[in-house]
Design a protein that fits this description.
α11 packs parallel to α14. The chain is of the alpha+beta class. It is elongated. Helix content is about 60%, strand content about 10%. The longest helix is centred in the middle third of the chain and has 28 residues.
């Protein structure tokens, strides 16, 4: 079911949304999540993003959820929870300038250069990587309710190849650092700590695998479902072995960790070699 069908089935109209949220001419409202992907069901709430100006943000200060006000007003982001004609609606409010800044930073980034990746660090346009990735993937998967021309112009600027390449390299750096730390803990006989670091390494490598396959991952709770959606694989089995500590009763934890560290190193090297072949998804 698409966005229009989702709204119509619940007796909602575009005009009701615009009126209830006070959307003005230059503001962009778009739907994200299941309805935008055509996968909505009867239990699905409506999740949207509203892009506005400084004036528009201040105008809605009293509408923002209390838990989002303190830090959100300073960073110019917030959430509105509303119930419109018996439909629960969640609206993330951002400045249009925030998206423009993210897209400017992505355009300036060279994710196929080690120096470029290191220089960018774990942030994009001054925003932490995970938050930036979430916002940009919402833009990619969203469906405009208002201001379609401006929405399409923003989305045309989104280079998914660059975004994917940057995320692969950042995930590999996180994974490699965790593997090094895990080996250090293992060398000092701190097996439990080594296992925890091994788990962190496999989470990072799981993200790298997903980005390498063109699958967005901006929230940790989607990692395993999306790895499963790729189909059976040696990596998925090892990932589950580590997360569920699937080992023989006779195998000491230190041996299990050492074995899985070797396997993870192989995954990291394979992904790294693949990225050195040239631009991704060519």
């Amino acid at each position: 079911m698409g966005v229009i069908g989702f709204l119509e089935e619940r007796g909602l109209t575009r005009e009701q949304l615009i009126e209830s949220l006070g959307v003005e001419g230059q503001e962009t409202l778009f739907v994200v999540g299941s309805p935008s992907a055509g996968a909505a069901d009867d239990e699905c709430d409506l999740e949207m993003v509203l892009l506005t100006s400084e004036r528009g943000f201040r105008r809605r200060a009293d509408m923002l959820a209390p838990e989002a006000r303190a830090g959100g007003e300073r960073r110019r982001l917030g959430v509105i929870y509303a119930r419109i004609d018996q439909v629960d609606v969640e609206v993330s409010v951002h400045l249009t300038a925030t998206y423009e800044r993210l897209l400017d930073a992505l355009e300036a980034l060279d994710p196929w250069s080690a120096a470029g990746v290191v220089e960018a660090g774990d942030a994009l346009g001054g925003m932490p990587r995970e938050a930036a990735v979430e916002l940009l993937h919402r833009l990619h998967g969203g469906r405009a309710i208002t201001n379609r021309t401006a929405f399409d112009a923003l989305r045309r600027r989104l280079d998914l190849r660059k975004l994917g390449a940057w995320n692969i390299h950042r995930s590999l750096l996180r994974g490699t650092d965790a593997l090094v730390d895990a080996r250090r803990s293992l060398c000092t006989a701190d097996t439990e700590n080594a296992y925890l670091k091994l788990s962190a390494a496999y989470d990072a490598l799981g993200d790298a695998v997903l980005f390498a396959r063109g699958e967005p991952i901006d929230r940790w709770r989607w990692r395993l479902p999306r790895l499963r959606a790729l189909g059976p694989s040696a990596f998925l089995e090892r990932y589950l072995d580590v997360m569920l500590v699937r080992r023989k009763p006779s195998e000491p934890l230190c041996d299990f960790v050492a074995r899985q560290l070797d396997a993870a190193q192989g995954v990291a090297e394979t992904l790294r070699r693949a990225q050195s072949l040239g631009p991704l998804y060519a």
